[in-house]
Amino acid sequence: MLKLRAVADQLSVAEHAVAEAPTLVPPTAAAELRGFQQELGRAMDSLGRISGLLTAWREQIDACSLSDKPDTIGETFLRLVAEGHLIDSAELQRRAGVTRQAVSKAVAARRLFYLEHGGQRGYPAFFLDPELERTQVEAVSKQLGDLSGGSKFMFFTTARGSLATAGEIRRGVMTESGVPRTPLQALKDGDFERVRMAAEAFSGC
């Protein structure tokens, strides 16, 4: 990628020279230069997509590894409950205005999930976040398939390079890298399809 950017910089210099002295450059050379720039742009786009996929795979491997550490599960669960990130079924029913049967049905359909420790279940409070479209959160949860509740929670709350905001591009050259976002933040930003695709890649764990 760095080599491609260096080539892009050189092409930008050449383009500037053509613009400064167009009569000194044969038309065919100028056309070839434009063609090279277009091909380079397509190549950089493809590499960007591949880089995003590789990032998603690395994140998926990390999540699979971290979710298997039993010594921290209890402490993490209790902390999430204390901080209000996880709520029990009764609180979920009360705040969402649904019945226990509706909660069970949503879990069975994978639209909702929970974390469990010591016989206690905790449902992610972000399902009730007014800044999120609940149907979109449920759709992403369903896309994650049979992953454990811990893995799903980690997916939603971990910042991911594959969901980074777009970097700044000047004269066809990437000058600033994007900022990684959590799937929850990306959903708030309206990037549902990118989150869905990230969930699809992540669910292979």
UniProtKB/TrEMBL annotation:
Top-level taxon of the source organism: Bacteria
Protein name: MarR family transcriptional regulator
Organism per entry: Pelomonas lactea
